[in-house]
Amino acid sequence: MSRKDGENVREAAEKVARRSYGKLVAFLAARTGDVAGAEDALSDAFAAALSDWPSSGIPDRPEAWLMTAALRKVIDASRRQRRSENAAAHQRLIAEELNAAAKHAQEIPDDRLALMFACAHPAIEPAIRAPLTLQTVLGFDAATIASAFLVSPAAMSQRLVRAKNKIKQAGIPFRLPERAELRERLDAVLDAIYAAFTEGWSDPAGTEARRRNLAEEGIWLGRLVVMLLPNEPEALGLLALMLHAEARRGARRNAYGEYVPLAEQDTALWDISLIDEAEVLLSRANGLGATGRYQLEAAVQSAHAVRRRTGQSDWHAIERLYAALSALTNSPVVTINRAVALAEINGAAAALAELDALAVDDRLAEYQPYWAARAELSARAGKIGAADHAYERAIGLEANPAIRDFLQKRRTEMHRRENF
Amino acid sequence: MQYLLMIYQNEAKMLAASQETVSQTMAAYGAYTEAMKKAGVYLGGNRLKPTASASNVRVTDGKTNVLDGPYAETKEQLGGYYLIDVPDLDAALSWAARCPGASRGTMEVRPIWPV
Q: What residue in B sits closest to A392 (Cα-Cα)?
């Protein structure tokens, strides 16, 4: 085999891996209840592909080839585990699946949604649901996920292993929940996807390819859920929300790489096709009745997007939407956003009064957006001392250097204005 | 749990920085230290003078050896540290990420061996 052939094979295998990874893991895990086992079997199958394909040629249906190879590995593995009492029954079951899969090999059933429901099961610790989904559905390695979620790689691997063990040991089912609990359980799936997206979003310049990919993968997962559950308003809402945010990527940094806040972004740099797509999804969601968190948040973004046409965000709508969100979630984060909207309508002093009500919440001591909002509003209200203090807190808590520079600049400008 | 956050940076680059950059960096460190104190995690921290000011002492066979310069020649040098008390490694890592040094160099996060 020439080196070039080897590269072609590797490329072909990687292409199939990217496209089919989650589907193959889902198919195997849904039948064995063993996510880690499915991942191991698949990685063996990919290794086999890399050694077989160069001599035997790339098969006509590489996905089916991988599936058959992986199923064989699963059966081998369960044979080795003779200690398990139901191993025989297990094996027979898998053998039947193997035959069925071989027969219908061109059409491997899509169990990815079932896999996502297993990863976001109430018995799985909420913080690990997004990492678990990224690993099992998209095949991200633990080190990449660890960096994105700011956790040590060793700890992340350990938590992922523990979660997969839990799925296996507790017998967490791989299926769509019953109608009655679908919405609630779907929320957990959507939360995991959004967590992945926002981790990617936290590097707005996209200077770090890994993180930018995470935002893209979040959107990809959102699209997958919408494709598989086309009439769930919250799934549509989440996808609309992510697309609205993604549409502004190009406007979030200026030519010098400096952070540009939403209110100062050049709307000509927004991606109109993404905004239009988001708007279509959102109106489809609104036509389906129930209104949830993601629809409301998408509607907020939609009210910002009108600035492209009217020159101004619809602050009245934004304030109302945040009020509705606040009633729904009772989250201090929403209260902060509502206060910022209120400042545009009733002035900074009224908004600061809203924030004062939050000051008793201890969690906010380390919550950067609270201090950033306080700083901006205090500066606008002419409360220079309070603004300076809040700027200092916001700067000290910020991990993103571009936003830290931005806040430092704002703080300096405030003092410069004051000295004139 | 206590953790030592060690700030490793390219010292030459830091020394060559403009006055404006230096004062902005100092202000960012000031804000970071203040945020740690307000959050109740700060136990201590210091900025170190450049490695040119370093001396090494070693006693071999009862003989004292004193050498100039840093202990090890590396691309990034230890420029300062913070000692913090936080519930777990996740919290320590998130404080390390907020340090201005994290976006200019590398933060090494080491748990303190409890006595």
A: B31
Q: Does B22 touch chain A (CB under 8 A)?
A: no
Residue A147 has a pLDDT of: 83
Using a 10 angstrom Cβ sphere, with 0-12 exposed, 13-18 middle and 19 or more buried, the burial of residue A179 is exposed
CA atoms of A14 and B21, how far apart (whole Å): 45
Report the gap between the CA of B108 and the closest CA in chain A (Å). 12
Q: Does A158 touch chain B (CB under 8 A)?
A: no
- Do B30 and A392 lie within an 8 Å CB cutoff? yes
Q: Write down the ipTM of this complex.
A: 0.84
Domain with A336 in it: 313-420
Q: Does pLDDT of B29 surpass 90?
A: yes
Would you say residue B46 has pLDDT above 80?
yes
Using a CB-CB cut-off of 8 Å, the residues of chain B touching A390 are: none
Say yes or no: B38 contacts chain A, CB-CB below 8 A. Answer: yes
User: Which of chain B's residues have a Cβ under 8 Å away from the Cβ of A155?
Assistant: 89-90
Residue B8 to residue B109: CA distance in whole angstroms: 11
pLDDT per residue as tens digits for the range B57-72: 999 999 999 999 888 8
Contacts of B89 in chain A (CB under 8 A): 151-152, 155
Alpha-carbon gap: A401 to the closest alpha carbon of chain B (Å):
6
Q: Does A399 touch chain B (CB under 8 A)?
A: yes
Alpha-carbon distance A198 to nearest alpha carbon in chain B (angstroms): 16
User: What average pLDDT does chain A have?
Assistant: 87
- Answer yes or no: is A277 within a domain: no
pLDDT (tens digit per residue) in A144-184:
888 888 889 999 999 999 999 999 999 899 988 888 888 88
Whether A116 is covered by a domain: the verdict is: no
Helix (H) or strand (E) run with residue B58 in it:
strand B55-60
Q: For residue A27, tell me if it sits in a domain.
A: yes
Please tell me the distance from the alpha carbon of residue A42 to that of residue A67, in angstroms, as a whole number. Answer: 8
User: What is the secondary structure of A372-413 as a DSSP string?
Assistant: HHHHHHHHHTT-HHHHHHHHHHHHHH---HHHHHHHHHHHHH
Maximum distance among all Cα pairs of chain B, rounded to whole angstroms: 50
- Given A58, A82, A108, the domain boundary residue is A108
Number of domains in chain A: 2
Of B31, B36, B103, the CB nearest to A401: B103
CB contact under 8 A, B33 and A396: yes
Burial per residue of A222-260, b for 16 or more beta-carbon CB atoms within 10 angstroms, e otherwise:
bebbbeebeebbbbbbbbbbbbbbbbbbebbbeeeeebb
Domain boundary, last residue among A73, A108, A143: A108
Q: Rg of chain B's alpha carbons, rounded to an integer? A: 16
Q: Please indicate whether, in this complex, the C-beta atoms of B36 and A396 are within 8 angstroms of each other.
A: yes
In chain B the domains, ranked by start, together with CATH numbers, are: 2-111 (3.30.70.1060)
Look at residue A384 and tell me if it is in a domain. Answer: yes
CB contact A39 to B (< 8 Å): no
DSSP state of A262: G
